[in-house]
Amino acid sequence: MKSVFVTVGTTSFDELIATALSPPALQALHSRGYQKLVLQVGRGSLPQEQPGSSSAVEVEVFRFKESLAEELQSAELVISHAGAGSCLETLEKGKPLIVVINDKLMDNHQLELAKQLHRDGCVLYCNCSTLVETLQSMNLSALKPFPPGQPEKFASFLDKVFGLQ
User: What is the pTM of this model?
Assistant: First the structure.
């Protein structure tokens, strides 16, 4: 079953959850062949109304789990808030990612992260008002794989900084 995983991390982002559950978003997902939508709502509100069994997309909702590895592994597409941890974990698993910016944050460092990852060709990004349009027009095959981390370079850098090399 082709699925989409939406995550807000440990925070709350009710607008993203509501947008993902909206009829236009569900229709866009269904038209792209997705049959399941898994929503991790974090500290946010649990959705009051979920699509009934007549919806073409099955919906599953939870707040937190010990690990999101299983959800990330089984998803064909991830839609995430722009938290660094959520973005990097998704990209390291090689999953296509749409990063949704929370416009209501005062100091929007998340926008900078999303823009840089987009410039690098690794993600698509939007805000809640343009998510449906992004789902309708997305070309996931154009996304580039995220380069794997190179901890040895970081270790070498620290060695130089601390005069160990």
Answer: 0.88
Q: What is the pLDDT of residues 119-141, one digit of tens each?
A: 999 999 999 999 999 999 999 99
Residues 76 and 62: their CA atoms lie apart, in Å, by: 19
Closest CA to 92 of 145, 152, 40: 145
Pairing of strands 3-7, 97-101: unpaired
Q: Write out the chain in H/E/C secondary structure.
A: CCEEEEECCCCCCHHHHHHHCCHHHHHHHHHCCCCEEEEECCCCCCCCCCCCCCCCCEEEEECCCCCCHHHHHHCCEEEEECCHHHHHHHHHCCCCEEEEECCCCCCCHHHHHHHHHHHCCCCEEEEHHHHHHHHHHCCHHHCCCCCCCCHHHHHHHHHHHCCCC
Share of the chain above pLDDT 70, in %: 89
In whole angstroms, how far apart are CA 65 and each of 7, 90, 123? 11, 16, 25
Residue 112's pLDDT is: 86
